Fold this sequence. Notes:
The protein has nine helices and six strands, in the order H-H-E-E-H-H-E-H-E-H-H-E-E-H-H. The protein has helices spanning 2-7, 45-54, 86-89, 95-107, 131-148, 158-165, 169-172, 194-199, 204-218; strands spanning 68-69, 75-79, 116-119, 152-156, 177-181, 184-191. Strand 5 and strand 6 form a beta hairpin.
Amino acid sequence: MLDWWREAGVDIIVDEEPRDWLRPAKAPPPAPHPGSTLAALPQTLEELAAHLLDAEFSAIGPQRLVSAGDHASGLMLIADMPDPGDVEAGQIFSGETGYLFDRMLAAIGRDRASIYLTTIAPGRPAGRMDADTAARLQTLARHHVRLAQPRMLLVLGQQASAMLLGEPLAAARGRIHHLDLEGTAVAAVATFAPRYLLKQPAAKADAWKDLRLMLEELTR
């Protein structure tokens, strides 16, 4: 039960009601952050990476990771945040989680060099994030997908699903989503985060179904 709540984003009791780190309570479907415009956002992937490394985000310190892989590969994967130990290891999904992740990629004929991997938050929050920062990261994540223009987006985990697809993971799985990102259309599939599969190996069969659905759409 504790593992389930941890995957849902609850790590510390600070209110009468639990809240996600990266999403304000009762958040509306994903929408541009108030006051932001396309012109005000970074205009290239390089500028966006520099912004995520240098900008101030509440509860996120200077220890951060940015995207890795080939944005021209056609397949973009996005999770909520780096796992514990990722920053020290220098890559998203390291250690045992990374080993499982690499096996997942191999199962679909890919490796880290032939995907584009990123996270919504560039680092692990030390505490609960304020609503304004969560909304800002949501806007940047959606803009990130728009800049990368993948043929397929694989959304990993509960919080990433809520922020990018506007639905909890349980509702988002099992079908193709079609995102309209300021005129850029992107197909997306949601599945479990590798850290969850490491703790709940019984879910691997369902994750494989999600990967097969993604492959069918990607090769269509």
